[in-house]
Amino acid sequence: MILTDVAYRNSHSSRINDVALLSHQNGVYTVGGSIQTPVSTSHVYDMLIDYPNLNRIFSSIDECHTLSEQSALQLLQICRWEFLAFSGTFKTLLNVHEERDAGRVVFSLIKSSFMKDFEGQWQLTGGYAQRIFVKQVTKVLEDLLAALKTQE
Asked: How many domains does the chain have?
């Protein structure tokens, strides 16, 4: 998850908030994390769907090529792995589903020479706007509660 925040923009640089193992069931790991950044949600989204240039962002991607199969977006990636003194590359073929209005990009593995299964997603949210709406709803409920108390 990536939180973009207009108020944060004026006083801070980007930072990683948390990364955690959320679950491990039947050999499947679910890991989640978030960063907060002053960069706009639309700009971050555009970076994430600029597939030919993902290797400039992510050190684990050497190459990324866009393919399409019957109107479905697919990516062929050459990825890099490292473990102790060993390293190498492997190919992955991914289905990609973009949901710009929801701020989401979802990936699912079709085929890989390294992994058996993979699903992932980027979820972009505007952090500041969310806090404003929560605060507004809280205030409306407090007002209603105060009005109800005067009726008792």
From this structure: 1
The tens digit of pLDDT for each residue in 86-98 reads 999 999 999 999 9
Please report the beta strands in 38-150, taking only residues with DSSP state E, as ranges in sequence order.
61-69, 72-83, 86-99, 104-112, 119-126
What sign has the CA pseudo-torsion 18, 92, 73, 52? positive
Question: From CA 147, how far away is CA 152, in angstroms rounded?
Answer: 9
Domain hosting residue 136, numbered range: 2-151
* 19 residue type, one letter: V
Q: Which residues contact 22 (CB under 8 A, 6 or more apart)?
A: 30, 31, 32
pTM to 2 decimal places:
0.70
- Looking at residue 54, which CATH number applies to its domain? 3.30.530
Tens of pLDDT, residue by residue over 2-15, are: 454 444 444 456 66
